[in-house]
């Protein structure tokens, strides 16, 4: 038994990737998620409009942070600011002294924190403002989570399932056959992701249909805008899955890398914990994760009915990520497939040289 224990320790020492997951990854996750895992929103970005906007903004205290003051704007402009995702909170003042607070219900934790702060401030001087929650009036958790869960399913199919593709080819011995076939690396890449793309698209339709019909999640925006965002997000996740499968030697390594890629996105994308509650040293990681931008698109389209012009930033970053990931996966495929023919040519040349020397 002792010999078996020693053998397993030696194998584990040689497998540096598994050793890193067992020792380094838990510490890293503890530090990162310790700063990210918080539902407390300490700062609430705010817009103040109306005739008394300036004086009212001067009277606001923490946690409200006034980012925009527009005395010439009214309620309609404030609603557009919320719909486009420019601010989660807007104070609409009038000449008569009444104030209405508009909250973006798609930002669940921010809206809840704003309501709590307003309730605690009712004892201050002046009449209490009227609070209205838009886009998710009941502050239902399902309305906020299901658009993000749709992205989580796409992430699971695109990264975890696809990552086993090339590894399966290598273990089955069919990767060499792909090398000798008249296919370009781009054709191989697209051929590998096409089945998973179709399956993930069907999963997306099913999830959104169930969410809208069973959980009464509103769908206030355009289907084609969400479809375009899903298309870009799928290309990114499928490309990451293919990259993982290329650099992995077996299915165990592919699963490990897929989990390492998916877990930060689940925690740091704003799907569960609000981005505003994360420490600045951790929040920057969120802006390089594709699920962050898909969550912004899906919630913006479904809950707020935001047009594509209001979502240009997440669309732009998803497009850049898609180009980078697909290009990297294609180049890695070219390097993966190229050595097989060259080895055969070198082998054939060596045989010819040996035959000539024998003669």
Characteristic key phrases:
359 residues, alpha/beta, 2 domains, 67% helix
Structure description:
The chain is of the alpha/beta class and 359 residues long. The chain folds into two domains: 44-134, no CATH class; 141-340, no CATH class. The protein contains 15 helices and five strands. The protein has a five-stranded mixed sheet with strand order 2-1-3-4-5, with helices on both faces. α3 (53-59) links the parallel β1 and β2 (64-70). α6 (141-161) runs antiparallel to α11, α6 runs antiparallel to α13 and α9 (185-214) packs antiparallel against α14 (312-337). The longest helix has 30 residues, at 185-214. The model is unreliable at 340-353 (pLDDT under 50).
User: Which structural class matches the secondary elements?
Assistant: alpha/beta
Spans of at least 5 consecutive residues with low confidence: 340-353
Number of helices: 15
Number of domains: 2
H-E string: HHEHEHEEHEHHHHHHHHHH
Kindly, what is the distance between the CA atoms of the first and last residues, rounded to a whole number of angstroms? 57 Å
Strand content: 5-15%
Shape: elongated
Largest sheet entry:
5 strands, mixed
Name the strands of the widest sheet in spatial order.
2-1-3-4-5
State the helical fraction.
Answer: 55-70%
Radius of gyration: 27 Å
Secondary structure: number of strands: 5
Question: Could you report the average pLDDT, rounded to the nearest whole number?
Answer: 82
């Amino acid at each position: 038994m002792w010999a078996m224990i020693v053998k397993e320790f030696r194998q584990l020492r040689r497998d540096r990737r598994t050793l890193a997951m067992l020792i380094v990854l838990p510490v890293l996750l503890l530090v990162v998620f310790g700063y990210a895992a918080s539902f407390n929103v300490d700062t609430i970005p705010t817009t103040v409009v109306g005739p008394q906007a300036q004086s009212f903004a001067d009277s606001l205290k923490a946690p409200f942070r006034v980012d925009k003051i527009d005395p010439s704007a009214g309620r309609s402009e404030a609603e557009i600011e919320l719909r486009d995702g420019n601010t989660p909170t807007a104070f609409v003042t009038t000449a008569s002294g009444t104030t209405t607070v508009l909250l973006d219900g798609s930002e669940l934790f921010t809206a809840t924190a704003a309501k709590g702060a307003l309730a605690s401030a009712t004892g201050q001087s002046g009449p209490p403002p009227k609070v209205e929650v838009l886009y998710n009036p009941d502050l239902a958790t399902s309305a906020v989570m299901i658009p993000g869960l749709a992205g989580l399913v796409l992430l699971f199919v695109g990264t975890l399932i696809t990552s086993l593709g090339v590894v399966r080819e290598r273990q089955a011995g069919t990767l060499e056959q792909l090398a000798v076939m008249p296919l370009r690396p781009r054709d191989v890449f697209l051929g590998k992701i096409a089945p998973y793309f179709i399956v993930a698209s069907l999963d997306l339709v099913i999830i959104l249909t169930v969410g809208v019909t069973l959980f009464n999640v509103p769908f206030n925006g355009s289907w084609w805008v969400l479809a375009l965002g899903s298309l870009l997000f799928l290309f990114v996740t499928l490309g990451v899955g293919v990259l993982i499968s290329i650099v992995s030697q077996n299915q165990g390594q592919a699963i490990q890398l897929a989990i390492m890629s998916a877990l930060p996105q689940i925690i740091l994308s704003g799907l569960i914990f609000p981005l505003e509650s994360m420490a600045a040293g951790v929040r920057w990681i969120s802006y390089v994760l594709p699920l962050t931008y898909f969550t912004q698109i899906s919630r913006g389209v479904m809950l707020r009915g935001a047009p594509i012009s209001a979502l240009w930033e997440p669309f732009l970053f998803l497009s850049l990520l898609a180009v980078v990931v697909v290009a990297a996966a294609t180049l890695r495929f070219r390097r993966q497939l190229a050595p097989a023919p060259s080895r055969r040519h070198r082998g054939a040349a060596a045989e010819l040289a040996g035959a000539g020397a024998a003669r």
